[in-house]
Amino acid sequence: MTKTITLSLAALIVVGSLALLRRSVTQASVGVYDPRTCGDQYNALVLRAKQSLASNDRVSAIHSLLQARDQLQHCQELQEQNANAPHAVALNTY
Question: 66 or 30: whose pLDDT is higher?
Fold first, then answer.
């Protein structure tokens, strides 16, 4: 019984660590908001989900759709951060 509990806790710690690591790495690599990049990544994930459904791979399709949802949320957060950032003023130096 304790062996099962120990293995379950170890698996939970590993999964939780990977989830947190993925999120921190994603946020650390955030650069300037580029709607084309976000849109391209989102569209690629949705396309992968469609292809998975066409090949009757429901698990992969659901996984791709969840990633697409996360990507969409990430793009919205980047867009909001970019909207709140002060804009550079171009000076005419003629």
Answer: 66
DSSP 8-state secondary structure symbol assigned to residue 73 = H
State how far the Cα of 82 lies from the Cα of 69, in Å rounded to an integer: 20
Contact criterion met (CB below 8 Å) for 74 and 38: yes
User: Residues 6 or more apart from 84 whose CB is under 8 A from it?
Assistant: none
DSSP of 19-54:
HHHHHHHHHHT--S--HHHHHHHHHHHHHHHHHHHH
pLDDT digits (tens, 9 = 90+) for 1-60: 677 776 665 555 656 666 655 655 554 454 555 667 888 999 999 999 999 999 999 999
